[in-house]
What does this fold into?
Amino acid sequence: MKSSLLLCVALAVPLGFILVAGFPQDPEDKEYVLVNNKCQCVTVTSKFVPSKDNPGEEILERNIRILVPLMARENISDPTSPLRTTFVYRMTELCKKCDPVEVELGGEIYQAQQSTSCNEPETCYTYNRDKCYTTTFPFLYHGEVKDVPAVLTPASCYAD
It folds into this structure.
């Protein structure tokens, strides 16, 4: 199981179990990335390490890395909103897989997804660099104030 490219790990949560697929960070590395949520700045990895109690046995070690953006705003698209003081991380939300996959059941192909809460908006603590963020700002031009659209993440809004 360790040598396969995909590592299936069951993360226990109060409401049940979630199946998470992982991939190695480096082909030579035995550490697998289970979650890499750039929106909430969280990376969850796991690897097998020798047990301290029984060195002949390996146990699964999980590492959770959370980067807290110190200057994050309550509304990241509004530079005038107050600074965020509360950061909430739920493993069920971090591990949800909303991309549908095709599953064959009884000779028929069905679309399935691993999460039931995919229609709810995701709370982001920083910009997801794959998403285009815009806002408007007041611009004084010839004595008249106009709301002008502005791009907050130009790399993701404009094609090369």
